[in-house]
Amino acid sequence: MKLLLTLVSFGAVLLAGCSSSNLAYQPRTEPESREFQRDSLDVYPADVRNDPARFDGKAVAWAGIIRQSKAQDLDDGSIHLVTTFEHHYFDWQQNGGGHGAHFSLSPRGEGAFQTDWVLRKINPDAGATDAEQYAAPGKLAIVYGVTEGVNDNGEVKLKYRYLRVIDADKYTTGEFDYGRFGEPVVYLK
Predict the structure, then answer these.
(1) What secondary structure letter does DSSP report for 41?
(2) Contacts made by residues 65-69, CB under 8 angstroms, sequence distance 24+
(3) Most buried of the four, 29, 83, 118, 132, by CB within 10 Å?
(4) Does residue 63 contact residue 145 with C-beta atoms inside 8 Å?
C-alpha cells in the first residue's frame, strides 16, 4: 500500500510539474496586449460565415497557419500584403515563457480567413519578397482584426489591426485535438 501511495504521489508531482509550464498566452508587445484585451476570443470564422450581418464589425483574435501571402511594394516605402490563413482552434495557452514559448494548436479549425496588412520597412533594401518570406506559408499567426464579411471564396475577411507571426518550429498541431471553448480535449501523443 505504501508503495502504491508513493507511486501515486510521484505521478501527481510529475504531472503537476508538466502542467505548471503552461501559462496564459502572453502578448509580445504593448499594441498586441491592448488588442488581446479588447478582442473576442470566442467568436469563430463559422459564426461569421453563418451570419455575416450579425458579426459585421466584430473585433476578434484568431490563430491561423499561413497558407499564402502576396506582397506588393508601395510608393510610400511600405509593403502591402494579402495573407490567407487556415484557422485552428487555440486554447490561448503557451508552454514555457518568453521567446522560447511553444504553442499547441488543435489540428482542427473553421476554415480560411484573410486579411490585408501593411508592413513598414525597417531595412530600406527590404521588398515584397522579404515580406513574403516573413509571412511564409507554414508559419503561425495570431491575427487581431475586425470582421468584414465573407469573400467569394468563402474566406472570412478581417480588417487588420495587429498581427504576430510565429515561426513553424514554435507550434504543433499534433499534441491535442480540441474545438471551441468548453469542448472536450483529446491528447494525441
Answers:
(1) S
(2) 65/105, 65/138, 65/139, 65/140, 65/141, 65/173, 66/135, 66/136, 66/137, 66/138, 66/139, 66/140, 66/141, 66/165, 67/112, 67/137, 68/137, 69/131, 69/132, 69/135, 69/136, 69/137
(3) 83
(4) no
For cell 499567426, the residue is 141
- pLDDT at residue 2, rounded to an integer: 36
Q: Classify 1 as helix, strand or coil.
A: coil
Rounded CA separation 105/171 (Å): 7
Instruction: Please tell me the distance from the alpha carbon of residue 120 to that of residue 115, in angstroms, as a whole number.
Output: 16
Sign of CA dihedral 55, 61, 63, 68: positive
Q: Which residues of 100-117 are buried (b: 16+ CB within 10 A; e: fewer)?
A: ebebbbbeebbebbbbeb
100: helix, coil or strand? helix
pLDDT of residue 100: 64
**Alpha helical stretches, state H, the chain:** 2-19, 30-38, 45-50, 52-55, 128-134
Give the single-character DSSP code of 31: H
pLDDT category, 5, cuts 50, 70, 90? Answer: very low
What is the per-residue pLDDT across 35-92, written as a single tens digit (0 to 9) for each? Answer: 999 999 999 999 999 999 999 999 999 999 999 999 999 999 999 999 999 999 999 9
Which grid cell is 120? 513598414
